[in-house]
Amino acid sequence: MALATAALLAGLTTPALTATPAAATTTPYDTTYYADAMGKTGATLKSSLHEIISAQRTISYSAVWNALKVTDQDPNNSGNVILLYSGISRSKSLNGGSTGNWNREHVWAQSHGNFGTATGPGTDLHHLRAEDVQVNGARGNKDFDNGGSAFTNSGGSLTDSDSFEPRDAVKGDVARMILYMAVRYEGDDSWPDLEANDAINGSVPFHGRLSVLKQWNDEDPPDAFEKRRNQVIYDSYQGNRNPFIDHPEWVESIW
Known about the structure:
This is Secreted ribonuclease. The protein is α/β, with parallel strands linked by helices. The longest helix has 14 residues, at 171-184. The chain is built from 9 helices and 10 strands. It has helices at 2-9, 42-53, 61-71, 133-139, 171-184, 210-219, 224-237, 243-246, 250-254; strands at 73-74, 77-82, 89-91, 102-106, 128-132, 143-144, 158-159, 163-165, 195-196, 206-207.
C-alpha cells in the first residue's frame, strides 16, 4: 500500500495485475494424438491442431440431448447434470424448452457463424453444454466479457446489454471452448472460418472478447470436470479432443 501511495504521489501509475500464463503441461497423448503438433508455435501450431482435431465423428442435434446427460453428469449425483453458467445440479429428465428445464447451449453462439443446429459446428459437443432455459435466454448470442449484473439463477454469472460474464468456476472452460471452435472450423469443410477477435458484437463469423478469454484461460485452469468431459467426448462420441484442455499454454502460443 505504501509503494502504491508513493507512486501516485510521484505522478506515476502502478502496473496492472495480470494472470500468470498457463504453465506447460504434458499428457499421455503428446506422443500419439498430438505428435504432429509438439514443438510448434503460432500459426504453425494452429494449423497442425486444426488437422488433428478435424478428424471427428459427428452426431445429430437430437442425439446431443443424451450425449449431454453423459458429458455434463453431476459427479455427485449420477441422475443430474451440472448447468454451465448457473452451476445448478438438475435432473437429467428435465431437458426441454420450458421454464425449469435445461436445454442445449451453444457456447459459440449460432448466429456468430450462421451454422444453426445442422451436423457440424451446430452439434459439436466441445462447445455444447447443458443450461437452464431462462439462463440460456439471458446469455442469448452475446460475446463474452467482464461486467454486468446478476439475474435469476445466474449462479454468479453476469450480463449486460451486449456481453456475458460466466461464473468464475467456468470462465476458463468457456474460453477453451471458444478457442477450440476457432481452431476446429477454418472454412475448409463447408463451414465458416470461425475466429476469435477482441470485439463485442463483432461481425460474423467472429466471437469475442479474445483478450478476456485469454485472461480467463490463465485464471481458471482445467479442472477434473472439464478434463473428464474432454475424455468422454473423445472416447465415446466424437473421437477428437479439445487441445486447450490438455495444453492450456497453447492459447498464448497461438494468440
